[in-house]
Amino acid sequence: MTKPSVAPGTRRTYDVLVEDVEAGLRSGRFKIGDQLPGERILAETYGISRASVREAMRLLDAMGVLRSSNRSGPKSGSVIVSEPSAGLSSTLRLHIASNRLPVEEIVEARILLETWAARTAAQHDDPAGIQHARELLEAMDAPEMDPETFHALDAQFHLALSALAGNTVIETIMDSLSGSIRGYIKDALDSLGQWPVVLEELRAHHHGIFGAVEAKDADRAAELLRMHILWLYEKATNKAS
Length: 241
Description:
Layout: H1 15-27, H2 39-46, H3 50-62, E1 66-68, E2 78-80, H4 84-97, H5 103-121, H6 127-140, H7 147-163, H8 168-190, H9 195-214, H10 218-240
Antiparallel strand pairs: 1-2
């Protein structure tokens, strides 16, 4: 591993490693799936303390760039991954919790992007993507569906619809936006105490949206998705108040 060129005293100590990983990914020196050396070797290579290495690793892990390995010996170290929505979602959740980012504005952004995705998805021809969304829809129709399983499948279904639009940046942002308020919405719906009724309503929404996308009715797909997101937010808001 080539020792990076570092200008001492110009940044926080752990930034040396973080910025070199970024530069390495841009240049191709690092690739997804590459394993970084262990903590001791990184500390020696970058001329920083092992505590600073751990801080950099924690930051990159939170950003969805590294996944820590539980192995020991020569297989120890962290692996470079690319999970941008994980980092974005956790950041958004924290700022929503601090009231810096109002939930209603997250909802507005989600409507803007998801309706665009639904409209675009209805204009694309992706049989494999449609089949994946259909399988998730069928899984959500299973009898005796508990809320935890349903919400997990719901998130996957929305992401599958987003993927049909064919724009990975929009897909990632939408996954982050929905992920940032997923817990807020889930807790509100669960606390209504009418899960069978809520479940049937959600199923009806999903079938309508999917049917419009499959029929390539772009305007209807976008409108049904807008109404679905607003319905969820109104349920959560009414319960909270």
